[in-house]
Specification:
262 residues; mainly alpha; 0% strand
Length: 262
């Protein structure tokens, strides 16, 4: 039976597909760490109190990248090149979602509107990350090799999502509500399209590695297109709503240390 658990188990059990999965994940997390570190360094003076939370966000992302690399090292695997069509973070940036890397590489302080854009982009992408990790946690929390990593990363992603909700509501209360809703909608509609394309690319690469039949690959592709159709019709709305989270001040402290993998 084709299910999320059976599909990921097949990827997990094969060294080559596992290395590709972890390399893609580690690359995206490390890129997110760099972006957050630069945003924290360029926060406008009026929002300097937000800088430690942005720094914590970036530190968490860096930690996740180290965790995925450690999972590979534990199995005696080396990271592999990430195919460009699977690079979710860079594809988002290339399509104008979030803050441009050219801006982040400079030294000009960001504006309050830039910070609102960053938070709106993060609210959308952290929704995706939280849901994906929740799925892995549901099926693999007790797995001897990846269970601890899945639980830690899942908890961090939930914290990131809570932080985005809380800070965006603060900015909405300060008069930025219209910009926030417009930016959230633009980000969500772009994200679901890029997520579809990246999912198709990842499954194509995995299919070649694992020798999937054309029929199985076609079935998986049809499932990805069906998810996109739902998200384009109505599902994107879950990415743009804002509510005060139960976890308040979720990024108010230092990042937790990455677990050791013997």
């Amino acid at each position: 039976m084709l299910s999320a658990k059976s599909l990921f188990t097949e990827i997990l059990d094969d060294d080559e597909s596992f290395a590709l999965f972890c390399s893609i994940a580690a690359s995206g997390e490390s890129q997110g760490g760099w972006e957050n570190a630069r945003i924290a360094a360029l926060v406008p003076e009026s929002e300097r109190e937000l800088a430690p939370k942005i720094t914590r966000h970036g530190a968490d992302e860096d930690k996740h990248g180290r965790i995925f690399n450690a999972l590979m090292k534990k199995r005696g695997l080396d990271p592999v090149p990430v195919p460009s069509d699977t690079d979710y973070t860079m594809l988002l940036e290339r399509h104008g979602i979030g803050l441009a890397h050219e801006k982040l590489k400079g030294e000009q302080p960001l504006t309050v509107r830039d910070i609102v854009t960053y938070l709106a982009h993060s609210r959308v992408t952290e929704q995706r990350a939280s849901e994906q990790m929740d799925l892995l946690r549901k099926h693999f929390a007790d797995h001897p090799d990846i269970g601890r990593a899945v639980k830690m990363i899942s908890n961090d992603e939930d914290n990131h999502l809570a932080y985005c909700h809380e800070e965006l509501l603060r900015f909405a209360g300060a008069g930025h509500g219209r910009d926030i809703q417009r930016t959230l909608r633009e980000c969500a509609l772009a994200e679901i399209r890029i997520y579809r394309d990246v999912s198709l690319a990842v499954m194509a690469h995995m299919g070649r590695i694992l020798g999937w039949s054309r029929a199985r690959s076609a079935l998986l592709a049809a499932g990805i297109h069906a998810v996109y159709a739902y998200e384009r019709f109505a599902g994107w709305r879950r990415m743009v709503s804002l509510r005060m989270p139960e976890r308040r001040d979720a990024l108010g402290g230092p990042a937790s240390a990455a677990p050791e993998f013997a």
